[in-house]
């Protein structure tokens, strides 16, 4: 009986989280999370090809895109921990993109 109640409670919770609360903001959150996760896939593929750890330009692009969307989502959800983390991360992604762009320009100038 206790196991049945537990399973029903978990089912009710999952239904509430993934069905009842489903709206455009949840879609945005999932798109942001897919972009954010995509950066690791890009980094992994680039590293496998190079045979060493590599952070390609696309890694920082996905980081900025996913991180910015997650920040918007966190602001909408009013989550102070998530907002603080994503706000700082977004600044770091912008700075790393600046470094990557500067490096690309320097490489083009020397070739």
Automatic annotation (TrEMBL):
Membrane-spanning residues: 24-42, 54-76, 82-101
GO molecular function: lipid-A-disaccharide synthase activity
Residues of the Lipid A biosynthesis N-terminal domain: 28-99
GO CC terms, sorted: membrane
Matching InterPro entries: Lipid_A_biosynth_N, UCP028440_lipidA_biosyn
Gene3D superfamilies xref list: 1.20.1280.290
Record carries keyword Transmembrane helix: yes
Keywords in alphabetical order: Membrane, Transmembrane, Transmembrane helix
Protein name per UniProt: Putative membrane protein
Taxonomic source organism: Azorhizobium caulinodans (strain ATCC 43989 / DSM 5975 / JCM 20966 / LMG 6465 / NBRC 14845 / NCIMB 13405 / ORS 571)
């Amino acid at each position: 009986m206790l196991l049945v109640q537990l399973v029903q409670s978990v089912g009710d919770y999952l239904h509430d989280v993934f069905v009842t609360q489903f709206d455009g903001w949840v879609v945005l959150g999932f798109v942001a999370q897919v972009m954010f996760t995509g950066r690791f896939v890009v980094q992994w593929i680039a590293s496998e090809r190079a045979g060493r750890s590599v952070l390609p330009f696309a890694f920082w692009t996905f980081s900025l895109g996913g991180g910015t969307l997650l920040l918007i989502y966190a602001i909408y959800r009013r989550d102070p921990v998530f907002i603080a983390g994503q706000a700082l991360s977004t600044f770091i992604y912008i700075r790393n993109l600046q470094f990557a762009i500067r490096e690309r320009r320097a490489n083009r100038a020397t070739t």
